[in-house]
Amino acid sequence: MKILKMFKDKTVFSFEVFPPKRTTPIESIYKTLDELKDLKPDFISVTYGAGGSNIGASTTQIASTIKRNYGIEPVAHLPCINFTKDEILRILDDFHRNDIENILALRGDINPDISPKKDFKYASDLVEFIKQNRDFHIIGACYPECHFESIDLDTDIKNLKKKVDAGADQLITQLFFDNNIFYSFLENVRKAKIKVPIQAGIMPVVNKKQIERMVSLCGASLPTKFTKIMQRYENHPEALRDAGIAYAVNQIVDLIANGVDGIHLYTMNNAYVAKRISDAISGVLI
Ligand code: FAD
Question: How many domains is the chain partitioned into structurally?
Answer without folding.
Answer: 1
